[in-house]
Amino acid sequence: MFALFDIPAQALFGQLLLGLINGSFYAILSLGLAIIFGLLNIINFSHGAQYMTGAFVAWMLLNYAGIGYWWALLLAPLIVGIFGVILERLLISRLYKLDHLYGLLLTFGVALIVQGLFRNQFGVSGLPYAIPPELAGGYRLPFMFLPTYRAWVVIACLVVCLATWLAIEKTKLGAYLRAATENPALVQAFGVNVPLLLTLTYGFGVALAAFAGVLAAPVLSVNPNMGADIIIVVFAVVVIGGMGSILGAIVTGFSLGLVEGLTKVVYPEASSTVIFVIMALVLLIKPAGLFGRTA
């Protein structure tokens, strides 16, 4: 059952690559969730729907407007981020002083509405989105074949995650944002428009989900259920890393993707549950998560 050394190297590294790709999506999606929860105290259950919307916007830009992958990688997060800004201003901003349950219920309802709209319009079958020609093909390594697009997904997610972490933890704007969540009145006294700052923060978290959706479009079929399939796992990743921990979301996302990929090789039957088993163990040992801070 656990004959790891009997597995061919190509199969082992192939599954680890798939795990790393999944981990890249886990990392960037959990990063957006961690930003929204850690800085706005909102459990954004519509994150999966926003991820799916990003993929659909890229598909529609290509098929209805002739706009290719590279422009879609910029425009789709911007369009979905603007939708997030409108949602925050109209609804979510009214919930900041209420219990987390209200935000969870609201965003869960938004997710159902968005998924229902896309399902009614496009059905449930997957829509293809071609890999851009510049990223087609791959490299024949001594131990495996490395598709160029898969390597690009991992690099793009890693760069965006690290840049986001640096912006929040190491810049003046990030310091203002963290302070605004602790003492908004004090930050407002320094001339900072706190409501606008919080609105843009939510929009940025949503844009990260849409960015992941565009990256996923050529790898997965674009369909209304793609967000629902991944969001539960992403929430488990966030819990393991620590709710609201930016670094925890990044490190845990990539690490658990690799663990999941290795489990598919060693014990495939457990690959769909291994992350939840790890979550249960972490909650037993450290309820605040691996990178979370205890109250």
Question: How are the secondary structure elements laid out?
Answer:
Blueprint: H1 9-40, H2 47-65, H3 69-90, H4 100-122, E1 138-140, E2 145-147, H5 148-170, H6 172-182, H7 184-189, H8 194-216, H9 226-241, H10 246-266, H11 274-285
Antiparallel strand pairs: 1-2
Helix pairs in contact: 1-5, 1-8, 1-9, 1-10, 2-3, 2-4, 2-8, 2-9, 3-8, 5-6, 9-10, 9-11
SSE string, helices as H and strands as E:
HHHHEEHHHHHHH
**CATH architecture assignment:** Orthogonal Bundle
Nearest-angstrom radius of gyration? 19 Å
Tell me the domain tally: 1
Provide a quick synopsis of the model.
By secondary structure, the protein is an all-alpha fold.
Describe the structure.
This protein is mainly alpha-helical and 295 residues long. The chain has one domain (9-127, 138-285): ABC transporter involved in vitamin B12 uptake, BtuC (Orthogonal Bundle), CATH 1.10.3470. It has helices at 9-40, 47-65, 69-90, 100-122, 148-170, 172-182, 184-189, 194-216, 226-241, 246-266, 274-285, and strands at residues 138-140, 145-147. A two-stranded antiparallel sheet has the order 1-2. A hairpin with a 4-residue loop joins strand 1 (138-140) and strand 2. Helix 9 packs parallel to helix 11 (274-285). It is globular and about 60 Å long. The relative contact order is 0.22. The model has no long low-confidence stretch (mean pLDDT 88).
